[in-house]
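Co-fold these.
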Amino acid sequence: MSEPYLRDLETFGGPATAEAPEWLEPLRRAARERFARTGFPSAREEEWRFTPVTPIAQGPWQPAPAGEPEAGARPVAREDLAPFVFGHSEWCTLVFVNGEYTRELSSPGALPEGVLVTTLGEALRNGGDLLPRHLGQYASIEESPFTALNTAFLREGGLIHVAAGIDLAVPVNLVYVTTADAAGTVTHPRNLIVLERNARASVVESYVTLAPGARYWTNPVTEVRTGPNSWMEHTRIQRESEAAYHVATTQVEVHRDSHYRSFAMAMGAALARHNLSVRLADQYSEALLYGLYLTHGEQLADTHSTIYHDHPNCHSWEVYKGILDGRSRAVFNGKVIVLPEAQKTDAKQTNRNLVLSDFAKVDTKPQLEIFADDVKCTHGATVGRLDEKALFYARSRGVPARAAERLLTYAFAAEVIEEVALEPVRQELDRLVLERLGE
Amino acid sequence: MLLEIKDLRASAGGKEILKGITLTVNAGEVHAVMGPNGSGKSTLAQVLAGHPAYEVTGGSITYDGKDLLDLEPEVRAQAGVFLAFQYPVEIPGVTNAYFLRAAYNELRKARGEEEVDSMDFLDLLEERLKVVEWGPEIIQRPVNAGFSGGEKKRNEILQLAVLDPRLAILDETDSGLDIDALRTVAAGVNRLRRPDNAFIVITHYQRLLNYIVPDFVHVLSDGRVVMSGGKDLALELEARGYEWVDAQAEALAK
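Predicted complex below.
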């Protein structure tokens, strides 16, 4: 199944290594070898039981076209990106078109001293010890064949480093946009975000398209490390083409006394999978993981999250909500692993699904593995319809039935969206939900 | 007349609950509907608002010259019928302001009027908050979510004040209220009384009627109006208890 890919791996290995630093080659080689051994996951594997990746495995996928757009195609203009910058073009925005960093469309933003925002490609050329110290340290090639592939092909992406004690007042927005030129291609964006001690940052990752019907595949991996006493909000918005495939991995390591919060919105792609893994790597750290998936038609949205409580006195709070219409499907698998030494762990996980059609389907599975005895861990999952009582309540106030359904559906989503700290992003998420609900 | 209920029969889940109710309400009047638990008071309220769980099996309701039973719940609201719920529903995720503006604009649209934007609506809302003696912080809280029992009832009266119906039905608005909250809610209702609107106040206890003084009192028992009278009837009922009513009802049935 993986053979076409292995051929690509061979050819890809040549020119890319020529300009890559020496330390990277063993990492890439290990990833290549790892993928050659495992291939794509099969539906027989528990982790992929509900999410068949056959269409991805069968490909074929070309590398995305680099440089100038094809003859006749219009280059991407700033106006085209207006819907993806939250009305704040002054934010530090890195734009990648079909995987390639595009300087003309990006904005450096007014960054404080001690903050580095650059591209992976640039950083690989420039050297320094940031990449060798962190790249590949958090996202393990052993954990997923998709991470192995990404690592084998890694070349471009966003790199953010916030030095100790710095508050990155301006959000950083990483925008991955796919155009019609990139139909039939795959990109492997690779992001690395490192916050040192006492640092603070808001980062948004957007995966969007200007070609709503295009079939392509995005395979991003994002690694995050937050140092002691840091604060980070990490938002990801997935609005790929509804014919595209999106398999993403986010791996986060949170250190002592740190606060990490994420919000993941998934509303695009034919098949979307997000592996989110957060390791609470020292005491008194906390992770707040929120998510919303909106599916319709034949879409499939899959979230697999894992929270590792490795140390005592950590807190995790996870709320994912889904709204499903048409014949769409959602998968939610939430693992919480509490090691024996992680006493006084406080972990709560909730997955709530609102099903708007008779044909939509949800597979939700909480998975708590608790090896400590003095902990507070709870989970809950629901799959349901709109509340009849609430519908009647709204109608009794004069709101017509269809509008009442929309209002309550919006309310269901808004309850989790309001957890986003960054107001312009929150407003945009609100708008996206209302737009999807046909307001 | 504003409302004419004639021999109304309704059932839920195959069980007949209203067994022939007749009641006439004119503009400018306040009618109290009393009765023991299970007598059909709340069912009457729900049927007036158009709750789909109740099936009307006989009789008629004419509101403002129209057949009310023909109208969807939202159309009834647009025509000026309002039910203050006994158990107001929580809607986490939307604020009071958002919800009320949505409702308010639907009523305006139905009257062929322009919708109001959120700034203008906030002005109106802040004005109307005075009716229930509430500060502005309430309007940004999600609808009834995490409200105390008393706050929920007060919120119903706030909605009433904003939507300004011609016929308001208060379904046990007094239940779960302490005396201060009861006074506030009753004072709010009294402020909203006008010659061109009417109230049906449903209550188990006479207490509320000390504050909202009715023009007429009707007593329900087993799905029928067994007694009607002036405001003194409520006092008599309080003194004699519902056993007295049941005895009257039995006499009536014979």
